[in-house]
Amino acid sequence: MSQKIFFTNNVGKILEQLHDKLAPSKTMILTDNNVDEQYVTPILSPVLVGGPLEDIDIMSIKPGEEHKNIDEVKNVWKFFEEYGMTRSSLLINIGGGVITDMGGFAASCFKRGIRFINVPTTILGAVDAAVGGKTGVDFNGFKNEIGVFNEAEAVIISSWVFESLPHQERLSGFAEMMKHAMLSSAEDFDEILKINVIDNDFYEGVWLPLLEKSVGVKRRIVKADPTEKGLRKALNLGHTAGHAFESFALKGGNPIPHGYAVAWGLVVAAVLSNVHRGLPSSILYRLASFVKEKYGVFHITCDDYPELLEFMHHDKKNLTADAVRFTLLSDLGSPEIDCSLSDEEISVGLDVFRDLFGI
Ligand SMILES: NC(=O)c1ccc[n+]([C@@H]2O[C@H](COP(=O)([O-])OP(=O)(O)OC[C@H]3O[C@@H](n4cnc5c(N)ncnc54)[C@H](O)[C@@H]3O)[C@@H](O)[C@H]2O)c1
Ligand SMILES: [Zn+2]
User: Fold this and answer.
1) What are the pLDDT digits (tens) for 311-332?
2) Burial class for 79, CB neighbours closer than 10 Å (0-12, 13-18, 19+)
3) Are residues 208 and 138 in the same domain?
4) Which domain holds residue 310?
5) Same domain, 147 and 236
6) Domain total for the chain?
7) What residue owns the CA closest to ligand 1's atom 3?
8) pLDDT tens digit string along 62-94?
9) Measured from the CB, is residue 161 less than 6 Å from ligand 1?
10) Which ligand is nearest to the CA of 178?
Protein backbone atom coordinates (compact mmCIF):
# COMPACT_ATOMS: atom_id res chain seq x y z
CA MET A 1 0.00 0.00 0.00
CA SER A 2 1.81 3.08 -1.22
CA GLN A 3 -0.96 5.59 -0.75
CA LYS A 4 -0.05 8.74 1.10
CA ILE A 5 -1.94 9.24 4.35
CA PHE A 6 -1.91 12.60 6.14
CA PHE A 7 -2.84 12.96 9.79
CA THR A 8 -3.70 16.62 10.31
CA ASN A 9 -6.50 18.96 11.31
CA ASN A 10 -5.34 21.35 8.62
CA VAL A 11 -7.29 19.59 5.90
CA GLY A 12 -7.70 22.67 3.70
CA LYS A 13 -3.97 23.28 3.50
CA ILE A 14 -3.18 19.70 2.54
CA LEU A 15 -5.95 19.75 -0.06
CA GLU A 16 -4.45 22.87 -1.61
CA GLN A 17 -0.97 21.34 -1.69
CA LEU A 18 -2.26 18.14 -3.26
CA HIS A 19 -4.29 20.10 -5.75
CA ASP A 20 -1.18 22.04 -6.81
CA LYS A 21 0.80 18.86 -7.20
CA LEU A 22 -1.84 16.85 -9.07
CA ALA A 23 -2.88 19.79 -11.29
CA PRO A 24 -6.28 18.31 -12.26
CA SER A 25 -8.31 19.66 -15.18
CA LYS A 26 -11.36 19.92 -12.88
CA THR A 27 -12.01 19.08 -9.26
CA MET A 28 -15.22 17.95 -7.65
CA ILE A 29 -16.23 17.17 -4.07
CA LEU A 30 -18.60 14.30 -3.31
CA THR A 31 -20.19 14.41 0.13
CA ASP A 32 -23.48 13.67 1.89
CA ASN A 33 -26.00 16.17 3.24
CA ASN A 34 -25.03 15.68 6.91
CA VAL A 35 -21.34 16.14 6.26
CA ASP A 36 -22.03 19.08 3.98
CA GLU A 37 -24.10 20.78 6.68
CA GLN A 38 -21.72 19.99 9.57
CA TYR A 39 -18.35 20.31 7.92
CA VAL A 40 -17.95 21.06 4.22
CA THR A 41 -19.99 24.25 3.91
CA PRO A 42 -19.33 25.84 7.34
CA ILE A 43 -15.73 24.75 7.94
CA LEU A 44 -13.92 23.53 4.86
CA SER A 45 -15.33 25.66 2.05
CA PRO A 46 -14.45 29.02 3.69
CA VAL A 47 -10.84 27.83 4.03
CA LEU A 48 -10.70 26.83 0.40
CA VAL A 49 -12.25 30.01 -0.98
CA GLY A 50 -9.59 32.14 -2.54
CA GLY A 51 -7.31 29.16 -3.08
CA PRO A 52 -6.91 26.99 -6.15
CA LEU A 53 -10.11 25.10 -5.33
CA GLU A 54 -12.26 28.19 -5.64
CA ASP A 55 -14.27 26.99 -8.61
CA ILE A 56 -14.77 23.53 -7.25
CA ASP A 57 -18.22 21.96 -7.58
CA ILE A 58 -19.86 20.07 -4.72
CA MET A 59 -22.25 17.16 -5.16
CA SER A 60 -24.06 16.32 -1.95
CA ILE A 61 -26.18 13.17 -1.77
CA LYS A 62 -28.65 11.86 0.80
CA PRO A 63 -26.89 10.11 3.70
CA GLY A 64 -27.16 6.44 4.54
CA GLU A 65 -26.22 2.96 3.40
CA GLU A 66 -29.42 2.73 1.32
CA HIS A 67 -27.87 5.27 -1.05
CA LYS A 68 -24.69 3.26 -1.61
CA ASN A 69 -25.95 1.77 -4.84
CA ILE A 70 -25.44 1.78 -8.58
CA ASP A 71 -28.28 4.26 -9.24
CA GLU A 72 -26.55 6.83 -7.07
CA VAL A 73 -23.27 6.09 -8.86
CA LYS A 74 -25.03 6.80 -12.17
CA ASN A 75 -26.08 10.19 -10.77
CA VAL A 76 -22.46 10.86 -9.84
CA TRP A 77 -21.31 9.93 -13.35
CA LYS A 78 -23.98 12.24 -14.86
CA PHE A 79 -22.71 15.02 -12.63
CA PHE A 80 -19.14 14.28 -13.80
CA GLU A 81 -20.28 14.60 -17.43
CA GLU A 82 -22.22 17.80 -16.84
CA TYR A 83 -19.35 19.35 -14.93
CA GLY A 84 -16.94 18.45 -17.73
CA MET A 85 -14.73 16.06 -15.77
CA THR A 86 -12.00 14.51 -17.90
CA ARG A 87 -9.47 11.72 -17.48
CA SER A 88 -7.19 14.13 -15.64
CA SER A 89 -9.83 15.42 -13.22
CA LEU A 90 -9.93 14.83 -9.49
CA LEU A 91 -12.67 13.70 -7.13
CA ILE A 92 -12.46 14.51 -3.41
CA ASN A 93 -14.64 12.22 -1.30
CA ILE A 94 -15.53 13.87 2.00
CA GLY A 95 -17.64 11.72 4.27
CA GLY A 96 -18.03 8.38 5.99
CA GLY A 97 -17.51 4.94 4.50
CA VAL A 98 -20.56 5.23 2.26
CA ILE A 99 -19.10 8.25 0.46
CA THR A 100 -15.50 6.97 0.22
CA ASP A 101 -16.63 3.50 -0.95
CA MET A 102 -19.04 4.85 -3.53
CA GLY A 103 -16.98 7.83 -4.66
CA GLY A 104 -13.90 5.64 -4.97
CA PHE A 105 -15.84 3.23 -7.14
CA ALA A 106 -17.40 5.98 -9.30
CA ALA A 107 -13.97 7.54 -9.86
CA SER A 108 -12.32 4.18 -10.59
CA CYS A 109 -14.70 3.45 -13.47
CA PHE A 110 -15.23 6.90 -15.00
CA LYS A 111 -13.21 7.12 -18.23
CA ARG A 112 -11.41 3.98 -17.01
CA GLY A 113 -10.35 5.69 -13.85
CA ILE A 114 -9.76 9.19 -12.55
CA ARG A 115 -7.85 10.12 -9.41
CA PHE A 116 -9.56 10.52 -6.07
CA ILE A 117 -8.70 11.69 -2.57
CA ASN A 118 -10.49 10.48 0.56
CA VAL A 119 -11.24 12.77 3.47
CA PRO A 120 -12.96 10.51 6.02
CA THR A 121 -15.31 12.21 8.48
CA THR A 122 -16.30 9.20 10.62
CA ILE A 123 -14.01 7.19 12.89
CA LEU A 124 -14.93 4.08 10.94
CA GLY A 125 -14.02 5.81 7.70
CA ALA A 126 -10.70 7.06 9.05
CA VAL A 127 -9.39 3.77 10.43
CA ASP A 128 -11.06 1.42 8.01
CA ALA A 129 -13.15 2.34 4.96
CA ALA A 130 -11.08 5.20 3.52
CA VAL A 131 -7.79 3.28 3.56
CA GLY A 132 -6.84 0.00 1.96
CA GLY A 133 -8.19 0.32 -1.58
CA LYS A 134 -11.56 -1.41 -1.38
CA THR A 135 -14.25 0.54 -3.21
CA GLY A 136 -17.77 -0.46 -4.18
CA VAL A 137 -21.52 -0.37 -3.79
CA ASP A 138 -24.28 -2.66 -2.55
CA PHE A 139 -26.22 -4.56 -5.22
CA ASN A 140 -29.19 -6.91 -5.39
CA GLY A 141 -29.47 -7.07 -1.60
CA PHE A 142 -25.80 -7.89 -1.05
CA LYS A 143 -23.34 -5.56 0.64
CA ASN A 144 -20.34 -4.42 -1.40
CA GLU A 145 -21.29 -6.82 -4.19
CA ILE A 146 -19.93 -4.63 -7.00
CA GLY A 147 -16.58 -2.94 -6.66
CA VAL A 148 -12.89 -2.79 -7.43
CA PHE A 149 -9.65 -2.63 -5.53
CA ASN A 150 -8.21 0.81 -6.19
CA GLU A 151 -6.34 3.10 -3.86
CA ALA A 152 -6.99 6.78 -3.34
CA GLU A 153 -4.17 9.15 -4.37
CA ALA A 154 -4.13 10.31 -0.79
CA VAL A 155 -6.17 10.10 2.41
CA ILE A 156 -6.44 13.05 4.78
CA ILE A 157 -7.36 12.01 8.29
CA SER A 158 -8.35 14.60 10.89
CA SER A 159 -9.82 14.37 14.39
CA TRP A 160 -11.86 17.55 15.03
CA VAL A 161 -14.32 16.51 12.37
CA PHE A 162 -15.54 13.75 14.72
CA GLU A 163 -16.90 16.30 17.20
CA SER A 164 -20.21 16.46 15.34
CA LEU A 165 -20.53 12.67 15.13
CA PRO A 166 -23.55 11.18 16.93
CA HIS A 167 -22.62 8.90 19.87
CA GLN A 168 -23.69 5.80 18.01
CA GLU A 169 -21.35 6.58 15.10
CA ARG A 170 -18.49 7.27 17.51
CA LEU A 171 -18.91 3.90 19.20
CA SER A 172 -19.41 2.10 15.91
CA GLY A 173 -16.09 3.31 14.50
CA PHE A 174 -14.31 2.81 17.78
CA ALA A 175 -14.96 -0.95 17.60
CA GLU A 176 -12.66 -1.15 14.56
CA MET A 177 -10.00 0.67 16.59
CA MET A 178 -10.43 -1.96 19.31
CA LYS A 179 -9.97 -4.64 16.66
CA HIS A 180 -6.77 -3.02 15.38
CA ALA A 181 -5.42 -2.69 18.92
CA MET A 182 -6.07 -6.39 19.57
CA LEU A 183 -4.27 -7.28 16.34
CA SER A 184 -1.39 -5.02 17.34
CA SER A 185 -0.08 -5.36 20.90
CA ALA A 186 -0.85 -5.42 24.64
CA GLU A 187 0.22 -1.75 24.90
CA ASP A 188 -2.18 -0.65 22.17
CA PHE A 189 -4.99 -2.67 23.79
CA ASP A 190 -4.33 -1.05 27.21
CA GLU A 191 -4.30 2.39 25.61
CA ILE A 192 -7.55 1.90 23.74
CA LEU A 193 -9.44 0.64 26.81
CA LYS A 194 -8.67 3.96 28.52
CA ILE A 195 -10.49 6.02 25.89
CA ASN A 196 -13.98 7.37 26.46
CA VAL A 197 -15.11 8.00 22.90
CA ILE A 198 -18.53 9.36 23.93
CA ASP A 199 -17.32 12.30 26.02
CA ASN A 200 -14.39 13.33 23.96
CA ASP A 201 -13.26 16.55 22.31
CA PHE A 202 -10.93 14.71 19.90
CA TYR A 203 -7.92 16.74 20.97
CA GLU A 204 -5.40 16.33 18.17
CA GLY A 205 -2.45 15.68 20.48
CA VAL A 206 -4.17 12.48 21.62
CA TRP A 207 -6.18 11.52 18.60
CA LEU A 208 -3.89 12.04 15.63
CA PRO A 209 -1.25 9.62 17.03
CA LEU A 210 -4.00 7.21 18.07
CA LEU A 211 -5.52 7.25 14.58
CA GLU A 212 -2.09 6.89 12.99
CA LYS A 213 -1.40 3.81 15.10
CA SER A 214 -4.76 2.27 14.26
CA VAL A 215 -4.43 2.93 10.53
CA GLY A 216 -0.87 1.59 10.71
CA VAL A 217 -2.17 -1.82 11.77
CA LYS A 218 -4.49 -2.02 8.76
CA ARG A 219 -1.79 -0.63 6.46
CA ARG A 220 0.80 -3.21 7.43
CA ILE A 221 -1.63 -6.07 6.92
CA VAL A 222 -3.02 -4.76 3.62
CA LYS A 223 0.48 -4.10 2.30
CA ALA A 224 1.37 -7.74 2.87
CA ASP A 225 -1.84 -8.98 1.22
CA PRO A 226 -3.61 -6.28 -0.82
CA THR A 227 -6.25 -8.52 -2.44
CA GLU A 228 -7.18 -10.65 0.57
CA LYS A 229 -5.58 -13.96 -0.35
CA GLY A 230 -4.33 -14.69 3.16
CA LEU A 231 -3.10 -12.41 5.93
CA ARG A 232 -5.68 -9.69 5.20
CA LYS A 233 -8.22 -12.07 6.72
CA ALA A 234 -6.72 -11.11 10.09
CA LEU A 235 -8.74 -7.90 9.69
CA ASN A 236 -11.80 -10.11 9.90
CA LEU A 237 -11.24 -10.49 13.65
CA GLY A 238 -14.64 -10.20 15.37
CA HIS A 239 -16.45 -10.06 12.05
CA THR A 240 -17.51 -13.72 11.68
CA ALA A 241 -19.81 -13.59 14.70
CA GLY A 242 -20.25 -9.83 14.18
CA HIS A 243 -21.70 -10.20 10.67
CA ALA A 244 -23.98 -12.97 11.94
CA PHE A 245 -25.24 -10.68 14.74
CA GLU A 246 -25.74 -7.87 12.22
CA SER A 247 -27.71 -10.05 9.79
CA PHE A 248 -29.70 -11.65 12.61
CA ALA A 249 -30.68 -8.25 14.01
CA LEU A 250 -31.56 -6.95 10.54
CA LYS A 251 -33.75 -9.96 9.82
CA GLY A 252 -35.50 -9.53 13.16
CA GLY A 253 -36.35 -5.94 12.24
CA ASN A 254 -34.00 -4.34 14.80
CA PRO A 255 -30.89 -3.39 12.82
CA ILE A 256 -27.73 -2.67 14.81
CA PRO A 257 -24.77 -0.53 13.70
CA HIS A 258 -21.91 -2.50 12.15
CA GLY A 259 -19.43 -1.50 14.85
CA TYR A 260 -21.71 -2.63 17.68
CA ALA A 261 -21.94 -6.03 16.01
CA VAL A 262 -18.14 -6.04 15.69
CA ALA A 263 -17.67 -5.13 19.36
CA TRP A 264 -19.85 -8.08 20.43
CA GLY A 265 -18.20 -10.24 17.74
CA LEU A 266 -14.78 -9.38 19.19
CA VAL A 267 -15.94 -10.78 22.52
CA VAL A 268 -17.03 -14.03 20.80
CA ALA A 269 -13.64 -14.18 19.03
CA ALA A 270 -11.89 -13.62 22.36
CA VAL A 271 -13.92 -16.42 23.99
CA LEU A 272 -13.04 -18.82 21.18
CA SER A 273 -9.41 -17.64 21.24
CA ASN A 274 -9.29 -18.31 24.96
CA VAL A 275 -10.66 -21.84 24.60
CA HIS A 276 -8.93 -22.90 21.38
CA ARG A 277 -5.77 -20.81 21.13
CA GLY A 278 -4.91 -20.03 24.75
CA LEU A 279 -5.60 -16.27 24.77
CA PRO A 280 -5.22 -15.29 28.46
CA SER A 281 -8.55 -15.12 30.35
CA SER A 282 -7.68 -11.73 31.83
CA ILE A 283 -7.78 -10.18 28.33
CA LEU A 284 -11.14 -11.75 27.61
CA TYR A 285 -12.63 -10.44 30.88
CA ARG A 286 -11.29 -6.92 30.39
CA LEU A 287 -12.62 -6.78 26.84
CA ALA A 288 -16.03 -8.18 27.80
CA SER A 289 -16.54 -5.72 30.64
CA PHE A 290 -15.46 -2.76 28.44
CA VAL A 291 -17.83 -3.81 25.65
CA LYS A 292 -20.69 -4.40 28.09
CA GLU A 293 -20.22 -0.97 29.64
CA LYS A 294 -19.97 0.95 26.34
CA TYR A 295 -22.09 -1.05 23.90
CA GLY A 296 -24.56 -2.72 26.25
CA VAL A 297 -25.84 -6.25 25.80
CA PHE A 298 -26.81 -8.08 22.60
CA HIS A 299 -29.67 -10.34 23.61
CA ILE A 300 -29.59 -13.84 22.20
CA THR A 301 -30.88 -17.12 23.53
CA CYS A 302 -29.80 -20.68 22.71
CA ASP A 303 -32.85 -20.93 20.44
CA ASP A 304 -31.14 -18.36 18.20
CA TYR A 305 -27.99 -20.43 17.68
CA PRO A 306 -29.14 -22.36 14.57
CA GLU A 307 -29.94 -19.12 12.77
CA LEU A 308 -26.68 -17.47 13.87
CA LEU A 309 -24.70 -20.53 12.73
CA GLU A 310 -26.52 -20.45 9.41
CA PHE A 311 -25.42 -16.83 8.91
CA MET A 312 -21.83 -17.74 9.84
CA HIS A 313 -21.78 -20.57 7.29
CA HIS A 314 -23.02 -18.19 4.59
CA ASP A 315 -20.60 -15.38 5.33
CA LYS A 316 -18.92 -14.51 2.04
CA LYS A 317 -15.54 -14.50 3.75
CA ASN A 318 -16.11 -18.10 4.82
CA LEU A 319 -15.44 -20.09 1.68
CA THR A 320 -15.73 -23.64 3.06
CA ALA A 321 -19.25 -24.90 3.48
CA ASP A 322 -18.51 -27.48 6.19
CA ALA A 323 -16.76 -25.57 8.97
CA VAL A 324 -16.84 -21.91 9.94
CA ARG A 325 -13.44 -20.24 9.83
CA PHE A 326 -12.52 -17.61 12.39
CA THR A 327 -9.60 -15.29 12.87
CA LEU A 328 -8.47 -15.94 16.44
CA LEU A 329 -5.70 -14.67 18.69
CA SER A 330 -3.17 -16.76 20.58
CA ASP A 331 -2.26 -13.49 22.28
CA LEU A 332 -2.71 -9.76 21.70
CA GLY A 333 -0.81 -9.00 18.50
CA SER A 334 -0.72 -12.67 17.40
CA PRO A 335 -3.59 -13.41 15.02
CA GLU A 336 -4.20 -16.80 13.45
CA ILE A 337 -6.37 -16.87 10.33
CA ASP A 338 -8.57 -19.71 9.01
CA CYS A 339 -9.23 -21.39 12.35
CA SER A 340 -11.98 -23.91 11.57
CA LEU A 341 -14.47 -24.57 14.35
CA SER A 342 -17.44 -26.93 14.45
CA ASP A 343 -20.99 -25.77 15.15
CA GLU A 344 -20.75 -27.40 18.57
CA GLU A 345 -17.56 -25.51 19.44
CA ILE A 346 -19.12 -22.23 18.31
CA SER A 347 -22.28 -22.94 20.34
CA VAL A 348 -20.20 -23.48 23.48
CA GLY A 349 -18.49 -20.15 22.71
CA LEU A 350 -21.90 -18.44 22.44
CA ASP A 351 -22.85 -19.95 25.84
CA VAL A 352 -19.76 -18.34 27.41
CA PHE A 353 -20.53 -15.07 25.58
CA ARG A 354 -24.03 -15.05 27.15
CA ASP A 355 -22.57 -15.84 30.58
CA LEU A 356 -20.17 -12.91 30.30
CA PHE A 357 -23.06 -10.54 29.53
CA GLY A 358 -25.33 -12.09 32.16
CA ILE A 359 -27.96 -13.23 29.63
N1 LIG B 1 -13.82 -0.07 1.93
C2 LIG B 1 -13.60 -0.68 3.07
O3 LIG B 1 -12.55 -1.29 3.30
C4 LIG B 1 -14.64 -0.59 4.14
C5 LIG B 1 -14.34 -0.99 5.44
C6 LIG B 1 -15.32 -0.84 6.42
C7 LIG B 1 -16.56 -0.32 6.10
N8 LIG B 1 -16.82 0.05 4.82
C9 LIG B 1 -18.13 0.63 4.45
O10 LIG B 1 -18.30 1.83 5.18
C11 LIG B 1 -19.69 2.11 5.33
C12 LIG B 1 -19.94 2.53 6.75
O13 LIG B 1 -19.19 3.69 7.02
P14 LIG B 1 -19.67 4.79 8.06
O15 LIG B 1 -20.01 4.14 9.34
O16 LIG B 1 -18.68 5.88 8.03
O17 LIG B 1 -21.08 5.19 7.44
P18 LIG B 1 -21.69 6.51 6.75
O19 LIG B 1 -20.84 7.01 5.66
O20 LIG B 1 -23.09 6.14 6.42
O21 LIG B 1 -21.68 7.57 7.95
C22 LIG B 1 -22.48 7.35 9.09
C23 LIG B 1 -23.40 8.54 9.36
O24 LIG B 1 -22.63 9.59 9.90
C25 LIG B 1 -22.88 10.79 9.18
N26 LIG B 1 -21.65 11.56 9.27
C27 LIG B 1 -20.48 11.32 8.65
N28 LIG B 1 -19.53 12.15 9.10
C29 LIG B 1 -20.13 12.96 10.00
C30 LIG B 1 -19.66 14.01 10.83
N31 LIG B 1 -18.38 14.37 10.85
N32 LIG B 1 -20.55 14.62 11.65
C33 LIG B 1 -21.84 14.22 11.70
N34 LIG B 1 -22.34 13.22 10.96
C35 LIG B 1 -21.48 12.59 10.12
C36 LIG B 1 -23.27 10.34 7.81
O37 LIG B 1 -24.02 11.31 7.13
C38 LIG B 1 -24.09 9.10 8.13
O39 LIG B 1 -25.40 9.49 8.47
C40 LIG B 1 -20.41 0.83 4.94
O41 LIG B 1 -21.00 1.02 3.69
C42 LIG B 1 -19.32 -0.22 4.86
O43 LIG B 1 -19.58 -1.21 3.91
C44 LIG B 1 -15.89 -0.06 3.85
ZN1 LIG C 1 -15.90 -3.88 10.15
Assistant:
1) 999 876 666 657 899 999 999 9
2) middle
3) no
4) 168-224+231-356
5) no
6) 2
7) 129
8) 999 999 999 999 999 999 999 999 999 999 999
9) yes
10) 2
